[in-house]
Each structure stands twice: as C-alpha cells, then as structure tokens.
Specification:
Rossmann fold; alpha/beta; 8 helices; Elongation Factor Tu (Ef-tu), domain 3; about 375 residues; binds FE2/S2 (inorganic) cluster
Length: about 375
C-alpha cells in the first residue's frame, strides 16, 4: 500500500490531501453545530423536567410521631397508603406549612429512612430556637395531620461504588447519613459512621445505630455524663484516618466549622470529603442589606438569604447549602463573605444568598 501511495504524482497527492482536509472541515462545520444544538436541547429538556418536578407537590398524612427532647421523628404516608415517588439517600423534602402567625413558610428536611421502600417517608426535625416552622412542628404535630411537601429532591447523593464508606455526622446531621448507611449496607459496602453530639440525648437513633447489622458505629460525646463509657471529645481527621482503609469515600453532614476543618485536614492527605452543611455560624457584624425597597440588618443571621427573608423579601430557596441555585441574586454593590461553598455555576456578579454574609453594606438586584 505504501509503495502504491509513494508512486502518486506529488501534485495529485497534494490535491488529494487538500480534498481530505476540506471534507473534514465541512463535516466539522456541519456536524458540530448539530451536536451543539442537540446538547443544548437536551440540557433545556432536563432543566424543564427538573423545574416541573420541583413544582410538584405531595399531600402526606402523619402516621407516626415520636418525640425525643427538642426533636420529633415523623413518618409520612399518602392518604391511601399508595406508593410514593422514588427518593435517593441524601435527598430531602421541602415542607410547606404556616408559621404561628399564619404566614407561609417552607423548610427542607433530609429523609432518614431506607429509601428502598416506597410506602413511607421519614423525617427527623429538630426545633431550632425561634424556628418559624421547626418549633411549632415539634411542639404541635400529631398523628392524622396533613402536610404538603415537595417531591424528594437534592444533590447530596451517595455515589454508587464498592469502596468502603466513611460517614461523618454531628447532631441532626445524622439524617441523610442514616439513609446513606442503609443503602451502603444493603450493597454490602463496609460502612463506618462517626457521630458526634453533645450529650447522649443529642445522639439521634443511638439505639438503632448500635444494633444496625453491618455498621461500624462510633459515637463521640463532647459533654458526656459521668457514666458514659464511650469516646469523648470531638471527631478529628486523625481519628478517622487511623481507622480507615486507603480507598474509602468520605461523606459528612455537620456544622460549617466542623466540615471546613475536616475538609482541609482530609485534603492534606489527598482525600476528598463530600458534604452537606446544615448551618453556618450567625453573623456578628451589622451591615445594611438592601434589595429593591426592602432592607435588613445582617447581624444575627447565618446568611443574607435569612436576613432578607426574615423581613419579607421572599427569595426562593430550597437546599440552603449552595447546590440548588434557587436563591441566586445579582450583587449590585458591596463586599460579601463566602460562608458556604457554592456548588452552582455563577456569573461574576452573581451570588447565592444562602451561602454569603455581608462584609459591608450590600445592594442586591430584585
Ligand atoms: S437555597 Fe439552594 S443554593 Fe441557596
């Protein structure tokens, strides 16, 4: 073959090469836009489908209530006990209720049951001090009550593989970890759960976790009673790594400071921590935040979103953790402090209001 090609007249070979190049260029020019259009259409369809799903509502009936200290464990079904929409470990429901003044309020709560079964959802809700939804719910919810919720949603999902799994939780952050533990145990992955709380009463699901077959459960109390025989102190990366296989996956749901500290320590060892935050410390600084005609003071709020919504701004939100993108706003002026990491693509002048605090007076576009 080489000999045959080598015998072609150089002019003819050159023309042939030009023809090949021209054909390739035409093909690329023709095919690339078609692929680009298909890609954009695919993305738009996914977006529309997700929006449609986000707007769908479920009417659920409370069929079981278990109170523990300042929290409540709710089991929810449909009125006719029919199959519920599929949920994944790590997802949450957005509950739509009314606060004590009758104003609409919605909050996200992680699912904490084995999501393989489809006939009930289970949520653990802790009464936050001054919580507009959690406090009245924990105090007053009863069997037979009806609750409107979103479909299961959220992006903090367990990646499916066979690696050993290390779950790290603090306080009520145990909820998505429990759903993940059920799934991983069913898949016969080795699972270790590190769980930190202040006292024994703050360890949710403690009895269940102690007996869950296949789970290496490691509770740690920071303020234990004298008769506590388990580990004391706080979860540290050194603790975790000393008991972890090298190819493990790490997932965490805890406070911002604990997550930040573990992320950095694990990163130094070349490990990645997947996490969902459930709180950032409240801002101690007082700056005016304005959006249109509404203005709020930043002091005492964990995010610009909370400060503005408290005075009636009605910025939509879902995850409060930087992943859904619903609370996105354009920053007109001012300096912000990033308290949670944004996992959503943003333009240079955009911010996720759930992830920032004010570092100076702020102005946001409506
Ligand atoms: S509420 Fe989801 S990113 Fe802010």
């Amino acid at each position: 073959m080489d000999g045959y090609l080598g015998s072609l007249h150089p002019d003819f070979q050159c023309q042939r090469n030009l023809a090949v190049v021209a054909t390739l260029v035409l093909l690329i020019l023709g095919v690339a836009p078609a692929f680009w259009c298909l890609y954009r259409i695919g993305r738009m369809l996914c977006y529309l489908k997700r929006q449609q799903q986000d707007q769908r509502r479920l009417r659920l009936i409370v069929c079981r209530v278990r109170r523990q200290g300042q929290s409540v464990l709710l089991t929810l079904r449909t009125a006719d006990s029919s199959k519920l929409p599929k949920a994944l470990p790590g997802q949450h429901l957005l509950l739509f209720c009314r606060d004590k003044d009758g104003k609409p309020v919605s909050r996200a709560y992680s699912l904490c049951h084995d999501t393989k079964q489809r006939h009930y959802y289970r949520l653990a809700i802790k009464a936050e001090p001054h919580g507009r939804l959690s406090a009245p719910l924990v105090a007053g919810v009863a069997v037979g009550d009806s609750i409107v919720s979103s479909w299961p949603r959220g992006h903090f999902l367990l990646k499916t593989n066979r690696s050993p799994l290390v779950l790290i939780a603090a306080g009520v952050g145990i909820t998505p970890m429990l759903a993940m533990a059920y799934r991983a145990i069913r898949q016969q992955r080795p699972v270790t759960l590190w769980y930190q709380a202040r006292t024994l009463n703050d360890l949710y699901f403690h009895r269940l976790l102690r007996r869950l077959p296949g789970l290496d459960y490691r509770p740690i109390l920071s303020q234990p009673a004298v008769d506590w025989l388990g580990a004391r102190g706080r979860i540290t990366a050194d603790n975790i790594l000393a008991h972890t296989q090298t190819d493990s996956d790490f997932y965490c749901c805890a406070s911002a400071s604990m997550t930040d500290q573990l992320t950095q320590a694990l990163r130094q060892q070349g490990k990645q921590l997947h996490y969902e935050l459930f709180s950032a410390p409240a801002s101690a600084e007082s700056f005016t935040i304005t959006m249109g005609t509404i203005s709020a003071d930043s002091a005492g709020y964990a995010s610009v979103l909370d400060a503005l919504n408290q005075v009636g701004a009605q910025i939509p939100f879902d995850c409060r953790g930087g992943s859904c993108g619903l609370c996105k706003k354009r920053l007109i002026s001012g300096e912000v402090k990033q308290v949670l990491e944004a996992a959503t693509a943003l333009k240079s002048d955009e911010v996720l209001t759930c992830c920032i605090q004010a570092k100076s007076a702020l102005e946001l576009a409506i």
